[in-house]
Design brief:
This protein is α/β, with parallel strands linked by helices. It has 2 domains: 31 residues, no CATH class; 50 residues. The chain is 31% helix and 15% strand. Strand 3, helix 3 and strand 4 form a beta-alpha-beta unit. The N and C termini lie far apart (57 Å). The C terminus is likely disordered.
């Protein structure tokens, strides 16, 4: 393990305890990697700005046939469904959702 990680500029560790344990075993260049959100860098805006009824169900990913987004959109869920992404089916999905038939379903 030391031979593999030794050349690295930094070995990312999740906690102070793991850093201490690895240092005791001879690992060097250990850097703490916080998996939390840095609220100094990320400050989400007002949440009330999103249109639609709550709760909001969100699909984020590639918009393609194999993702079966139609199944997600047809789920009988309370609230609003959002699709965020790009892909080969984006235009077709958007057109289907914008049609009068889609809005009445």
């Amino acid at each position: 393990m030391r031979r593999f990680h030794g050349p690295a500029k930094a070995v990312m560790v999740g906690t102070h305890d793991i850093r201490s344990r690895l240092a005791a075993r001879g690992f060097a260049n250990l850097a703490l990697w916080s998996r939390g959100v840095d609220t100094g860098l990320f400050r989400p805006g007002e949440r009330s700005g999103l249109p639609g009824q709550r709760p909001i169900f969100l699909y984020v990913g590639r918009v393609a046939v194999e993702k079966n987004i139609a199944a997600f959109l047809s789920l009988p869920l309370p609230g609003t469904k959002w699709v965020v992404g790009d892909g080969p089916q984006r235009a077709r999905t958007r057109a289907a959702l914008s049609s009068p038939r889609a809005s009445s379903a």
